[in-house]
């Protein structure tokens, strides 16, 4: 559970820092920088793979491509940070302000595999805090989820 919280916290922090950096850039006549993040929690194999003559550090596994897919989906939804249901299920409910975005197939279909199910994808709006902005975002996310 801590991995999911750490990953989402880091992404929210990156986006906040980027907002500040972009404000500075605009004030100084420089272009803005934009990023998109996708986070999924799942099983993968990570490490050095290959032989001594050809070693590569990499990530393999069924879940290894899902974060890239989520990152790419941000373009379609005009969002910055999308996370999978697997990640949301490992976050404490009050940690972040999230809203459901869509129900999509995150895994590619295998021949003869009929067990594939669509999964809910969520946008992380911000880290939950006790200020009025967080309260407004929380209320807006709740209204969106009900609609």
Automatic annotation (TrEMBL):
GO terms of biological process kind: cyclic nucleotide biosynthetic process; intracellular signal transduction
Mind telling me which Pfam families this protein's record contains?
Guanylate_cyc
CDD domains hit by this protein: CHD
Q: Enumerate the spans annotated as Guanylate cyclase domain.
A: 1-71
Q: Which PANTHER family match?
A: ADENYLATE CYCLASE, TERMINAL-DIFFERENTIATION SPECIFIC, ADENYLATE CYCLASE, TERMINAL-DIFFERENTIATION SPECIFIC-RELATED
Name the UniProt record assigns to this protein: Guanylate cyclase domain-containing protein
- Give the source lineage, highest ranks first: Eukaryota, Sar, Alveolata, Dinophyceae, Gonyaulacales
């Amino acid at each position: 559970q801590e991995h999911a919280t750490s990953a989402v916290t880091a992404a929210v922090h990156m986006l906040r820092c980027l907002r500040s950096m972009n404000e500075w850039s605009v004030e100084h006549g420089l272009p803005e920088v934009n990023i998109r993040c996708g986070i999924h929690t799942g099983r993968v194999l990570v490490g050095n793979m290959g032989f001594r003559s050809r070693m590569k550090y990499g990530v393999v596994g069924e879940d290894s491509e899902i974060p890239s897919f989520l990152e790419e989906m941000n373009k379609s939804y005009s969002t910055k940070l999308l996370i999978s249901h697997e990640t949301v299920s490992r976050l404490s409910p009050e940690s972040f302000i999230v809203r459901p975005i869509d129900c999509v197939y995150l895994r590619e279909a295998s021949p003869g595999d009929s067990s594939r199910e669509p999964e809910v994808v969520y946008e992380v709006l911000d880290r939950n805090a006790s200020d009025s902005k967080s309260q407004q975002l929380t209320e807006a996310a709740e209204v969106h989820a009900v609609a």
